[in-house]
Write a structure and sequence with these properties.
- This protein is mainly alpha-helical.
- The chain has 12 helices and no strands.
- The N terminus and C terminus are likely disordered.
Length: 282
């Protein structure tokens, strides 16, 4: 009895059907790659496979082109996913395309999750954002649909209202406004609404740093500082009040300020409670 033979060559009949034009027939090369030890020959074959499958990686990257990220950057991320897929693929488990597509897609999605948010938020909050975004779109697209409430989104998604609120807040965290933006449309930039550092902060810090040393001064030294820096008296008027010379007041002020400065800069320093000033009456 005659037998019927197929006109299709055996090698082509055994080859699995490719789902895209950019999926080359590389089954034999992957089998060879798996058998090769580390070395120049394996590296060259790995590079050859990467080049062969790169159009598919670019196609996958193109699916994300309208999400605000540069296409060339997305292609680089997809190429990285392709290399990972080639390194991890086991040719005995099926077609490479079935393994590579989710691997590359996952790499691109991780890029959006970890690298493109203007404000870094936890993964759980990102997932809440995605669920809330999809639910709000679905509810709005319904016939006669309006912008849904927090309660409406919660009922649609099964989330709590607190979780929906968190997801809605995260919707504004993916990108940020420039400080030169005019959100109110009134000709004013965000920069105009920002506060400035309070100059009194440095005064508070200096005052607290000097407090310990000032509390240790003799009463007359504190009186001299008060008259000079709080009552704004001249050295001559201070001298008249104390019954001493203006030169003596000048020396006292220099000595007191030097002592406070030294103890403020070195809180551990134990300066004597009083030091004689040359030429000063005791």
């Amino acid at each position: 009895m005659p037998t019927h033979r197929s006109n299709t060559p055996p090698t082509e009949a055994a080859r699995p059907r490719r789902t895209h034009d950019d999926a080359p027939g590389t089954e034999a090369r992957f089998t060879r790659l798996a058998a090769l030890p580390a070395g120049p020959e394996r590296d060259a074959l790995r590079a050859e496979l990467t080049t062969a499958w790169l159009p598919m990686a670019h196609r996958i990257a193109g699916r994300f082109r309208d999400r605000g990220e540069n296409v060339e950057d997305l292609r680089q991320v997809a190429a990285l996913g392709l290399v990972k897929a080639i390194d991890r693929f086991d040719p005995e488990r099926g077609a490479f395309e079935s393994y590579a597509v989710p691997t590359i897609t996952g790499e691109v999605k991780r890029h959006f999750r970890d690298r493109t948010w203007a404000l870094r938020v936890p993964r759980r909050v990102q997932e809440l954002r995605n669920r809330v975004r999809v639910a709000r779109r679905d509810l709005t697209d319904r016939p006669g649909g309006q912008t849904p409430s927090v309660a409406g989104i919660a009922g649609h998604t099964g989330l709590t209202e607190a979780e929906v609120t968190t997801g809605l807040e995260a919707l504004d965290s993916y990108s940020t406004l420039s400080l030169d933006a005019d959100p109110a449309g009134e000709g004013g930039a965000l920069t105009d609404s920002l506060g400035a550092p309070d100059p009194a902060y440095s005064v508070v810090v200096d005052r607290e740093a000097a407090r310990r040393s000032l509390s240790r001064l003799p009463e007359r030294d504190r009186d001299i500082l008060y008259m000079r820096f709080f009552e704004d008296l001249s050295q001559s008027r201070i001298a008249a009040r104390l019954g001493i010379s203006q030169m003596h007041v000048s020396r006292l002020l220099q000595h007191i300020c030097a002592r406070v400065r030294t103890e403020t800069q070195d809180p551990g320093a134990d300066a004597p409670l009083s030091r004689p000033v040359p030429g000063a009456p005791r």
